[in-house]
Amino acid sequence: MLVKMVRVKAKQDSLFTAVVMTEVTKNPDLKSIQRDIALDLGMDLLPTELPPEQVADRIRAKLIEMKKFLVILDDVWEAGIDLEKVGIPSASELKQAMEKRNEEHSSGQEDMLRKILLTSRDPNVLSGMMDEKDQVFKVLELEDDEAWDLFKKIAGSKVESSDFQPIAKEIVKKCLGLPVAIVTVGKAMRGKTQQFEWEDALMELKRPTPEGISAAVYKPIELSYKYLQGDELKQTFMLCSLLGHDSSINDLLKYGMGLTLFPKAKTVEETRTKVLTLVHRLKLSSLLVDGHSNMHFGMHDQIREVALSIASRDHNVLALVGEDGGKDWPEKETMENLKWIYLSNGYPELTSNGLNCPQLTFFHLSNKGCSLAVPTDLFTGTDVLKVLCLTRIDFQSMPSEIPLIPTMLRTLLLDQCVFRVEALGTSVGNLENLEVLSLAGCDIEELPREMEKLTKLKLLDLSDCTKLKVIPRQVLARLSKLEELQMGNSFDQWDDVEGRNAGLAELTELHMLTALEVRIPNFREILFPENLERFKIFIGIASRESWEYYYWDSYSWNSSFESSKIMKLKLQGASIESNDSVKKLLKKTEELYLEGVQRLVDELDDEGFQHLKCLHVQNAPDIRGIFNPARRLLHSQVFPMLEVLTLSNLQKMEKICHGLTGAAPFKVLSKITVVRCHQLKNLFSFSMARQLQLQEITVENCDNIAEIIDDVDEQGNGNDIVEESEGCKLGNNLRSLTLKDLPKLSSFTSSSCSNMSLFNDKVDYSKLGKHDLLSVLGNLEALTVHFCETLIILSTSTVSFRTLTTLEVSHCKWMITLVSTSTAQSLVNLKGMIVSYCHKLTEIVGNEGDGKQDSINFPKLTYLKLEGLTKLASFCSGNSNFEFPSLEQVIVNQCPQLMKFCQGDKLDTPALKRVQLIAGEDKWRWADNLNTTIEQMYIEKDGYAGLQNLLLSDFPEVMKSWHEKSQEMLHFGLIQDLKICDCSNFEYLLTPSLALAFVQLKKLEVINCGTMKQVILGEEPENQIIFPHLWLIILESCSDMTSFYMGSQNLRIPELHHIYLKDCPKILTFAASTFLGEHEEEAFQYFFSSKVEIPHLDTLDLCSINVKKIWPDELSSMSSSVQNLRKLTVRDSGNLKYLLTSSVVKSFVQLEVLEIFECQLMEVVILIKDREDEKRVRQMAFPKLNVLELMVLPQFKKFCGKCNSLVEISEPQGLLNGSGSQVLSPTS
């Protein structure tokens, strides 16, 4: 219970990108643990045939992608669990991955955070899995007062004033402060009003208990079991105890049907309803807990231990799990009385003498990977057996294959087994009473023809049979009693051309079918059974591999769904207007995924989606909006039940709702996600927003979003004033707002766009029925703003965030101030604040300049992180006083100009004991108080530690000692982005030794440095200068620069992809030797020489430079420097007469784009020797060229030719590849 609260709290505080939890239990199952983690990460439930090692790799990759994660491993019994085998990356793995990712992206350092929370009853288990620096927190038993308070809360407060209060207190004492016991007994005694009932309960708790189980645990759980009402509920509890941790409702359903536990339930659906009801009642009694979805449940290990003991003692159940697996079979007399046998994770030897259990009705054997031989006559003497479950067994490796099965069997589960189709046919062909058959996850390619004899079959599960290719015709059609057919992630070869496979039409012959899971690879005319009430149907989706790289993995079959009526359609331009069967199902659908639809609502349903709760639309290039203004149906009738709306990669969508007036179409919409909709400028109008009940808004990667709410209607007029009494539903409900990668976002509403403030008090919010922004954000709890580059401030003046608990802002490059003083005063519930990589931010709380000494209190803030804020000078530059009574963790990293935390007279942080320098690492400082600590960090230059993006002009102190002492301040080995602008003090930037220190440098910019002659200058003994990760060089407006590098060493830049040179009129070469002497003219003749190695150059852009030749006339060893060049642009280069020679052009094998503009002396592009040379050029030149632009070349005569020649040589027709474009206007 406590650890689940930690999980909820971690999610609420948004300190982690992912919070995953799994219960390890006494008998850990690696696949179950991996499944739990995968589901929490939103991953597809990985195919059952994947080995755990591959599953671990996928989990590891996903966690690394999430960057900040908390993994909770609950109830660990042994120290032997291997986190690496589960797929949890180590701290070093995560660090390496982050470093690699930072090399590949130039947007600043990405944060990482890895936390592992382990819980165990044995502290020795934890110490065996942890490092010395890890912390162990002992959760003690509850004190008497705490135990009593918990019991009253569970059993009811009336117990306090009742006559039997003393007895109740004695009962609580018997629980010895154990929460699981107190809660269980409290639930059992809730509603008991007679004193004799309480006396009886106390007597039960005083009775002796079996050896090996604590009385404080055993007796309360036994008491709770005793008070369960009805045999159905008690037997269901016993069956749940066998299944254990995170079990499936479907498995319980299959077992219950076979055992006839619910005789009044006549259909599969009625049985499912009964199972769900009973499981819910057991959860209310605290005997079961929630599983990872609404179709799963779990049981605490201690409760399971007691339940299995009761089952063995009172119900003739043999359950061998975990360490019990190696026990011998009981004595003959005991075997003859057994009714249920459950063997998991180990078992006695399976002898060939048969079980000889005449009363046995249930047998379960699960193989955990070891070699296992199942005798043919194992089930001899089990004539009344009703349920048989054999999982993960390779029958194909046994001489006799599948054992003989009693004919009275009603449920047969052979999940994840391997066998020949002939053996399966022989085994199941005579099971005339079989009602449930499950072959889920089996390694089978064909169903046997004998299955058509199973005429009483009600449920057939073929899920995850990924190799199943053949279902003989009419086998399905003859299963006339079939009510449920589950074929998820399985067979999809319907109506094959050979005519041997089942056809979709067979499904319509199953008149009792009410539940169907099926995948149909091609959209066509399809008929479905009329009575479907539960379905998961994919149409147009051949396999999960097709969808791995989409924004969300919603098309993977095994995603965790909460709905029972799901459809996924990939139309690929097809229309379903004429497909009545599909349209009928759409009217029932609760969760709908669409791809390739052309006209969303009009095409799919002209009567509205009356039951639809979740709608996901992606990759529909022609959709301009969800609604058509010409529709006959009122908008409010289209989606009356829609709760979740996701729109992704809709490139032409301009408005979510075109021409909308009147009532909003989304009356109960609670969550909207919009991703990669680049024509969209806003989400809603004011008139619609005030009617919405949204709880969560997420907008990501939309290039033209300027505001979230537009206060101008469709006709361009402002919306009418709304009466105060109407209020704003959006403001009452909105809890989470996430805005990412929105380069044009300037405001939450269009009225304040010009202020570049996300929330502005100057907006007339009276239109929403209130007079301030509180009507929109009055209940907002989580706000995330990333890569919104135009914002200058988050909020101004009186904008209030009184309910906000988490605030995260990053990579807003023009943001100067985060919030105003008055807004800061409203953050009374803020618990976590992260501000990172906003490079112009100077303060968090704005100084309003009124001279007042405000008092600002953050009463609940526990976590504050300031990172990559290179201009941050203080938390607040005004003289405000600050109180942080709950602040426990502060991280300050890469804030080199932070001299003092705040300027006011008072700064109170009573709970803070240190300032962490780098997240995830045990590096910190503390000097009595926060202000003094920050001052010490400034003096010690800690702010430069870890700095990855360095704009030198921001650091005058660094520039003063750049060539002498800069390495004492900066860790050059971490810098990835180096930029110097508007500098008139440097003649060069780097020496060779200094250059070699920049081992992680990815981006180098030198702009408007009028005195700089070289970027790198100097003679040192190293053989070469290497920039191993540099991929972009920009040199612009450097009037004295003659070369990028001057020195005798070679220059190697193996990952350089882009070079941009502009307005550097004196630059003649990229790299030159220091002492040139008589060869000076030759050295400066070419821009690139053999001194430079750049094998991956992709783009070269030269503008306003006066080089004579870009490459030598013979490349020889330099050919590798151009073999990957894809785009070449030359503009305003006054000395170039030609671009390339015929001998050089053959090396440009990847060139796709060639642009030459305003080169006054250029006569030809390719210089040739003669006509034969021209023929060779035409055969080999630019094989991939598809864009050619030649403009404003006054001396231009021909594409291939000799300079100053009057011989006409044809223009470049035939050089362009495929349908490429050419613009030839050389003299205009």
UniProtKB/TrEMBL annotation:
Keywords: ATP-binding, Nucleotide-binding, Plant defense. The keyword Nucleotide-binding applies. InterPro entries: Apaf_helical, At4g27190-like_LRR, LRR_dom_sf, NB-ARC, P-loop_NTPase, Plant_NBS-LRR. The lineage of its organism: Eukaryota, Viridiplantae, Streptophyta, Embryophyta, Tracheophyta. It comes from Rubroshorea leprosula. It comes from the Eukaryota. GO terms for molecular function: ADP binding; ATP binding. Belongs to the disease resistance NB-LRR family. Pfam families: LRR_RPS2, NB-ARC. Residues 585-703, 797-899, 944-1010, 1098-1200 form the Disease resistance protein At4g27190-like leucine-rich repeats domain. Residues 10-158 form the NB-ARC domain. This is NB-ARC domain-containing protein. One of its GO terms (biological process) is defense response.
